[in-house]
Design goal:
The structure holds two protein chains of two kinds. Chain A has ten helices and seven strands. A seven-stranded mixed beta sheet of chain A has the order 1-3-2-4-5-6-7, with helices on both faces. Helix content of chain A is 42%, strand content 15%. Chain A is globular and about 45 Å long. By secondary structure, chain B is an alpha/beta fold. Among the domains of chain B are: 5-85 and 102-132 and 141-179, Clp, N-terminal domain (Double Clp-N motif); 212-368, P-loop containing nucleotide triphosphate hydrolases (Rossmann fold, 3-Layer(aba) Sandwich); 677-850 and 863-868 and 969-985, Rossmann fold, CATH 3.40.50.300; 871-885 and 989-1091, no CATH class. Helix content of chain B is 52%, strand content 9%. In chain B, the strands form five sheets. Chain B has a five-stranded parallel beta sheet, sandwiched between helices. The relative contact order of chain B is 0.05. About 37% of the residues of chain B have low confidence. The chains are: A alpha/beta, B alpha/beta. At the A-B interface, helix 1, helix 2, helix 3, helix 6 and helix 7 of A face helix 12, helix 18, helix 20, helix 21 and helix 37 of B.
Chain lengths: 266, 1092
């Protein structure tokens, strides 16, 4: 069983270090998003890369609509991978949805994680009273219907917005991976994400966290980062990134790598 | 002969037969004589959930809307059916087939037969059911055709595929879609669960209607320990509600069998009431206890509601409830579950504070409920989305942002003209077979350039045959041919070249070089003499190669016969010398003397990379001369490879091979040969006069490497890349030298690729005087990694100086790439791709790292240090009148221009710099000494600044290096520096003496205007700005000009405007807030100085 999940989710372990580092990609990307960041860590870490089951690079057969209705199913996958690799302890870098997954995983298995680095993370994307998540329910429904209507057009419109910074290569890369996702899966996953609410359980996160927040992230307002820092149970810090957009690992890889290095060494 | 329907039906499975029946119905309705494939298609499409329709949906092109395309298909089928002739007589009541309808046409029957055969051939592709059927029908020889195969065969029908084609479908795609299983999302009643999800399977088996949250609750409940779920999160309540509903409704097979008869009781309300109003709480739990006892099934889930209730006060009551629940669990061990919810972790932790052991007592398991799941039910049957499904996953290759140079080169070979290539190959074959004289005549049809190339080989071959009898050469020449065919491709467009004169095919091997001179000689006068020169000197092939092919000429000029004869002569001689194997090893000097002649040649950075046998063309730089450069390549390739072929025969040492080839390689490169090393020295010294030792070392190294004696050239493998490490201070000097090298060696300043590794984290402060110097933008590095940037630039201009400033701050990735590059000649960048650096000069600098022969830089403290100068800002300057910041006794006979201390220091120590105008050298020295003494006397400067410097540096490291990198920094840099061709140690720039000179010249100006009575006080910042500008300026006189014109004019204005009192001093200060607007030409200083 163990090996099959490793195959199914394209798990790779790169590098020779004795410490483990998980690089988990976010929605709309796959593990290739880390390709420019990865080399910075292969010397000091054994870097674990995997694809979320919703990624375009994973066989869509594995995406079970009944199962992946909640983030916990993704958490199961992550924990299964770590178990299959017999990872005793690891640092975890998660982007967007993977940041959520990482937090949930650390709640379940706090001993497994030495540190969480959460990039573009949000406990909840929808606004609520006293909480500004950045999206209104109505807006989201519009997005969903746009995705349903014409996925390609939506991708082409969404990718530059998400990347934020004026980095055509990053936009291209993100568009590619986003478009690789099957539209139905993509829609389904975004529904899952937008229907998730981690606010209540942030206090259970006891692993030290570093929240990395870029300057203009269309998905995550700055207040969210502050909210998370306040509510996360363990020690948490915010690292403001001097770059734009939701995908700093695509738009400013070397800068992000450096920040990650710093955060990991803290 | 049409087949009766009944016969055809026998060949089909029930499913397929039904489809056939439908087709027959269609045919009958339209009163067609026969049932054809088209009818079958029509029937198949009209089925609501047809396989064919489904396949079409999956393979449809995404450029049309699905509805539209299906409509088009239906229309197309309809139209085609309309075209078929209707036969009234053949309708319905025709003979025996009356009941059956129109008989099956031959084409459709053939399709059925085909599918039968197909099915027989691929028994493995059978469906399981079909297999069983087969076993049952083993006795019957008739194979029943499955619907899928039936459809596949029908699609083979040309009429059908045409119809599909009209609607924008390709029948091939449809077939593929039929063969491939549809995406899983469409099969809701799938038999097998996904294989890899271990933790899911029990539930998968038991029930599929459970939503994910319930599933997880059930999972906890079925466990042996920690079986009482506490749901936490925003969605905990909804999850609990749906769980309760789920248990209560007892949906068939929803719960695992262990939980059969599970019941749920919610005491939430009761507990709430009890806690609010008091009363007999015990009754609640007695009821529950009774319920459990009565329960015949697996047990009872007791839902105690929200934790928030428990922490809202009334501790006594809560304590009672908690203890009762604990008791309940203990009494009915295994039959009772507790389930509760907590909205937030805060409430839970409060609860835990109240009852520290409750999680143990209740055997609680925290379940995070972070997702709402009601939407799922409605989602997956949504078919509109399926319509837009694009099965492109993984289809797109990563569009590499960096143009992969390797692939580019490959691409050129891939795209090369096939015929060209073919001809080339074929002609080589001809040559091999027939021999030179006859083969030459066969070229008239091929491209001129091709001919030339071929003739050259031809000659090469000739010689090879006559002189060497080396059979292995044939293969090599073939290889050469292949290489040339690449070039040919590029030359393909250029047909304006002169036809090659076949008569020249008689020349012997070395004549190749002579021949190559041909164009040069004919079109340019002076080059003739060059030929003579080479003739006399009887240089070896390589030195001839080094000869100025560069001077390329309008190619349309026909060859000059005179020059050719010249060549012939010369060739004879050379060949003779060649035969006697008098290989003149190419000493740089000899080259130089040759190269002297050629310094006027055009600067076309073109290279033949012989080390790799790859040909570059930097077409971007000289779009006007591509064919010329290609020509050169032709010319150079052959002699080189020939020489390496011959050498072993001549029993030269392998060393010589390396030499000769390397010489002919790099020396041909770009305009390199146009630069004499002596003049290189001069040119460099002109730019950076103060680093003469460094320049000497650079010069030596460059010439050594270019002659093939570089460190990394070994054996036959020659590397043309040069690696230099510039160590020590003088950042600007290094940079200037690098830029000068780029300009001199590669022809333009754009051939410099600058990366400052320190600027990754900090830029120059805005308005820095050095701001402009950074050609390379911080922003770029943010977005690209350093290695990608370098590789990208190198791919654009392989002939470049790569200047890596502050290499000591290289991150791990850069280090790796550099090491690999220096070892292998390939610079790797992201995704493991590589780019050849064989034509580049790599310069790495470090001001921190001193190298092994560390020279002592801490000789004596300087007034102006490089760090201070680098901080200089571009500011407007102002002349003002003010009190002397320190009373300086005015001495008669000596005017004073003094430099005030830095503002930041505690006490403004004025370093009175007395300058005796009339003083000679000795006086200057004396003043130097006084300066030094003053410096030493006023320790404040040193005390405040020297340690500060170190602290800053330390901070820098802590900031942007991870510890491990810092640890390794020294060692890896040591390793790198050990591998470079030369470590060039720079001297610190002597700012103090420059300052003295400047002050002297300012003093002259000042005195001219004001006489010797007044004093000029120059702010330290202003002085650093002036020094920085002087350091930066390329022109020697620029600063003097500035002092004379700008400053002098300002002095004059000031004199008119200001009234001087004796106790006043003139001050030259900077206006920090005013940016420098107009800049003096040639120097980074204001064009005008403000007066107030």
């Amino acid at each position: 069983m163990g090996s099959s999940i490793l195959d199914a989710l394209n798990v790779r372990v790169e590098g020779t270090g004795d410490k483990y580092l998980v690089l988990a990609h976010g929605f709309g990307t796959d593990q290739s998003a880390w390709q420019r960041v990865l080399p910075y860590f292969t010397r000091h870490y054994s870097v674990i890369l995997y694809d979320l089951v919703c990624a375009g690079s994973v066989n869509p057969d594995h995406f079970d609509y009944r199962r992946y209705t909640t983030l916990d199913a993704y958490v199961d996958d992550l924990l299964n991978i770590l178990e299959a690799l017999r990872v005793p302890r690891c640092a975890y870098v998660g982007h967007s949805i993977s940041a959520m997954i990482g937090m949930l995983a650390s709640i379940r298995r706090p001993e497994l994680f030495s540190k969480l680095i959460l990039i573009g993370a949000s406990p909840r994307f929808l606004n609520d009273k006293d909480y500004h998540g950045g999206f209104e329910q109505g807006e989201i429904e519009q997005v969903f219907s746009a995705m349903e209507a014409n996925y390609e057009a939506w991708v082409n419109g969404f990718a530059p917005l998400a990347v934020g910074a004026d980095v055509p290569t990053a936009v291209r890369e993100f568009s590619r991976t986003l478009f690789n996702m099957r539209p139905d899966i993509s829609l389904f996953v975004s529904r899952t994400v937008f229907n998730s609410d981690l606010r209540g359980i942030l206090g259970l996160v006891s692993v030290p966290c570093c929240i990395m927040q870029t300057a203009r992230d269309m998905s995550v307002p700055e207040t969210v980062a502050k909210y998370m820092k306040e509510h996360i149970g363990g020690k948490s810090t915010i690292q403001w990134l001097d770059t734009d957009g939701h995908l700093p690992h695509l738009s400013a890889p070397s800068y992000l790598a450096r920040q990650l290095e710093i955060a990991l060494s803290q | 002969m049409p087949t009766p329907v009944s016969t055809a039906r026998q060949c089909l499975t029930d499913e397929a037969a039904r489809a056939l029946d439908d087709a027959v119905t269609v045919a009958r309705r339209r009163s067609h004589a026969q049932t054809t494939s088209l009818h079958a298609v029509s029937a198949l499409l009209s089925l609501p959930s047809a396989t064919l329709r489904d396949a079409c949906a999956r393979c449809r092109s995404c450029s049309y809307s699905p509805r539209l395309q299906f409509r088009a298909l239906e229309l197309s089928v309809g139209v085609s059916l309309d075209r078929l002739p209707t036969t009234k007589t053949a309708g319905g009541s025709d003979g025996g087939s009356g009941d059956e309808g129109p008989p099956v046409s031959n084409s459709l029957m053939a399709a059925i037969k085909r599918s039968q055969a197909n099915q027989r051939r691929h028994p493995d592709s059978f469906h399981l059911m079909q297999m069983m059927q087969q076993q049952q029908h083993q006795t019957t020889s008739l194979l029943k055709v499955e619907l899928k195969h039936f459809i596949l065969s029908i699609l083979d029908d040309p009429i059908v595929s045409r119809v599909f084609g009209e609607a924008g479908f390709r029948s091939y795609d449809i077939k593929l879609a039929l063969l491939q299983p549809p995406p899983p999302s469409r099969i809701f009643s799938r038999l097998t669960p996904p294989v890899f999800l271990c933790n899911l399977e029990p539930v998968q088996k038991t029930g599929s209607r459970l939503d994910e949250n319930c599933r997880r609750i059930v999972e906890v409940v079925t466990r042996k320990s920690k079986r009482n779920p506490l749901l936490m999160g925003m969605y905990a309540k909804t999850a609990l509600k749906s769980f309760i509903e789920c248990v209560e409704s007892r949906k068939g097979g929803v719960l695992p069998c262990e939980l059969n008869g599970l019941s749920v009781v919610s005491v939430e309300k009761e507990i709430g009431e009890f806690l609010r109003e008091g009363g007999s709480g015990g009754k609640i739990f007695e009821d529950v206890g009774r319920l459990v006892e009565q329960c015949s099934g697996a047990g009872v889930v007791v839902c105690f509601g929200e934790i928030e209730l428990f922490v809202g006060g009334n501790e006594e009551g809560v304590g009672f409830v908690v203890s009762q629940l604990t008791r309940l669990l203990g009494v009915h061990l295994g039959k009772v579950w507790l389930v509760g919810v907590a909205g937030t972790s805060e409430a839970y932790s409060k609860f835990l504070r109240l009852f520290p052991t409750v999680d143990k007592d209740w055997d609680l398991h925290l379940l995070t409920m972070t997702s709402a799941t009601p939407f799922m039910e409605g989602l997956y049957p949504k078919s509109s989305l399926m319509g837009s499904f694009v099965p492109f996953g993984g289809f797109f290759s990563t569009p590499s942002e960096l143009k992969n140079p390797v692939s580019c080169r490959n691409a050129s070979s891939l795209t090369r003209c096939d015929t060209c290539n073919e001809k080339c190959e074929q002609e080589v074959a001809d040559i091999l077979r027939v021999g030179p004289a006859t083969s030459a005549s066969g070229y008239s049809t091929s491209l001129p350039w091709l001919q030339k190339v071929n003739v050259e080989t031809d000659r090469g071959l000739d010689v090879a045959k006559t002189n060497e009898e080396n059979s292995s050469l044939n293969g090599k020449i073939l290889g050469l041919q292949r290489k040339w065919s690449d070039i040919c491709q590029r030359l393909h467009q250029n047909r304006s070249l002169p036809e090659f004169d076949i008569s020249r095919t008689r020349f012997q091997v070395p004549s190749l070089e002579g021949f190559q001179f041909g164009p040069g000689c004919s079109s340019k006068g002076p080059s003739h003499s060059e030929i003579q020169y080479s003739k006399i000197s009887c240089m070896s092939i390589e030195s001839q190669n080094a000869f100025p092919f560069k001077q390329i000429l309008p190619v349309s000029v026909p060859f000059d016969t005179v020059s050719i004869t010249d060549e012939a002569d010369h060739i004879a001689k050379v060949s003779k010398s060649d035969m006697h194997s008098t290989w003149v090893s190419p000493s740089p000097k000899a080259n130089l003397s040759l190269l002297d002649h050629t310094s006027s040649s055009s600067l076309t950075p073109v290279t033949t990379d012989l080390g790799l046998g790859t040909i570059y063309k930097s077409a971007t730089h000289e779009p006007d001369t591509p064919k010329l450069s290609d020509h050169k390549k032709h010319l150079h390739n052959l002699p080189d490879s020939l020489s390496s072929d011959f050498n072993p025969k001549n029993e030269c040492s392998s060393h010589q091979i390396a030499r000769s080839s390397s010489c002919s390689g790099p020396n041909l490169e770009g305009n390199f040969e146009t630069v004499d090393f002596k003049s290189l020295y001069h040119l460099l010294t002109e730019k950076v006069g103060w680093q003469d030792e460094a320049i000497y070392a650079i010069n030596q190294t460059v010439s050594r490497c270019r002659s093939g004696a570089g460190k990394r050239s070994s054996g036959s493998h020659v590397r043309a890349d040069i690696w230099l490490a510039f160590l020590g201070p003088d950042r600007l000097g290094k940079r200037k030298l690098a830029s000068a090298l780029a300009e001199i060696l590669f022809g333009n300043k754009q051939s410099l690729i600058t990366v400052d590794l320190s600027s990754q984290d900090k830029c120059y402060p805005s308005n820095s005087i050095f701001e402009f110097q950074d050609s390379y933008c911080h922003d770029v590095l943010m977005r690209k990694t350093v290695v990608d940037y370098i590789a990208w630039e190198l791919s654009k201009k392989p002939h470049s100086v790569v200047f890596i400033d502050n290499v000591d701050q290289a991150d791990f990735v850069v280090q790796n790439s550099l090491f690999q590059a220096i070892r292998t000649g390939k610079f790797s960048y992201s995704h493991g791709r590589e780019i050849s650096i064989n034509n580049a000069i790599f310069i790495v600098t470090s001001s921190v790292f001193k190298g092994s022969g560390s020279l002592n830089l801490e000789e004596d403290p300087k007034m102006f240090q490089e760090e201070r100068i680098l901080e200089a800002k571009r500011c407007q300057m102002q002349l003002s009148l003010g009190d002397s910041s320190q009373d300086v006794s005015k001495r008669s006979g000596c005017t004073s221009v003094k430099v005030a201390q830095r503002k930041g220091t505690s006490k403004t120590t004025i370093l009175n710099k007395r300058k005796l105008v009339e003083s000679g050298d000795s006086a200057e020295k004396a003043s130097c000494k006084t300066l030094k003494q003053v410096m030493e006397a006023s320790r404040s400067y040193l005390d405040l600044n020297m340690p500060l410097e170190e602290v800053e540096e330390d901070n820098n490291y802590n900031d942007y290096e991870t510890e491990s990198i810092v640890e390794n920094c020294g060692s890896w840099l040591n390793d790198l520096c050990d591998q470079v061709d030369e470590k060039v140690v720079f001297k610190p720039f002597n700012f103090d003496s420059l300052a003295e000179q400047i002050i002297k010249s300012i003093d002259i100006q000042f005195q001219k205007m004001f006489g010797s009575e007044f004093m000029l006080e120059i702010e330290y910042e202003v002085m650093t700005q002036i020094l920085a500008a002087a350091w930066l300026s390329d022109k020697k006189k620029a600063l003097e000009d500035w002092v004379e014109h700008v400053l002098g004019r300002s002095f004059a204005e000031a004199q008119q405007k200001y009234h001087f009192a004796p106790e006043c001093v003139m001050k030259l200060v900077n206006c920090e807030r005013i940016f420098l607007e107009d800049q003096s030409p040639g120097v980074c200083l204001p064009a005008r100085i403000n007066l107030n």
